[in-house]
Design brief:
Length: about 200
């Protein structure tokens, strides 16, 4: 759940890339931030102005791809939360059979892992593009280029949490429970005979 909330925060935040403060002139009056949905300019006085991206089709390909991956990640994570709640042993929703419930929990874990992979792909793709543009030979001075924003680090953390949570859910394998139930059923009649 924390991974999904962090992925939602990373998708909404406009700090996917920010103005670089490298180079000689490090004091600038305006700091620029860009995200998947909007770009912002922060004045040295503390005033922030944001503007939504005007057109979907005029955006660069990597931004459109990252947008799609983040939306898919959030949808997979949302369905993963619902399926995982149904598959928990402490809930009375759905099947009462523990084997079926554990299989549902494993399905929720798979959805969380896929959600984390989509978040990881989106954030890494964007970071690769930022790195390429920063080190590319161009006439733009270094202090006018962009570097990693805080939303990228939030996204990496979100993908790690989602994949870790999904892996833990996938560890509730139904085959072990089935073996334990068969052993429990076979052991009960033998103990009952001893007491009779």
């Amino acid at each position: 759940l924390a991974g999904w909330v962090a992925a939602l925060a990373a998708a909404v935040l406009p700090q996917w890339r920010q103005s670089s403060y490298a180079g000689d002139a490090i004091i600038t009056a305006v700091g620029l931030h860009e995200g998947l949905w909007m770009s912002c300019a922060a004045q040295s006085t503390g005033q922030v102005q944001c503007r939504l991206h005007d057109s979907l089709l005029s955006l660069e390909v990597h931004i459109q791809t990252c947008r799609a991956l983040m939306v898919i990640s959030l949808l997979l994570g949302f369905f993963g939360i619902i399926v995982s709640v149904v598959g928990m042993k402490c809930t009375k929703v759905g099947e009462e059979d523990p084997i079926t419930k554990s299989r549902i929990a494993v399905a929720g874990g798979v959805l969380f892992i896929l959600s984390g992979l989509c978040t990881l792909a989106a954030v890494s793709l964007y970071a690769t593009q930022v790195t390429y543009e920063f080190f590319r030979e161009s006439t733009i001075p270094i202090n006018a280029r962009y570097e990693f924003g805080s939303a990228l680090f939030v996204g990496w953390g979100a993908s790690s949490l989602s994949m870790l949570g999904g892996s833990l859910l996938c560890c509730s394998c139904p085959a072990k429970e089935r073996r334990g139930q068969q052993y429990h059923r076979q052991s009960q009649p033998s103990t009952a005979r001893e007491y009779v």
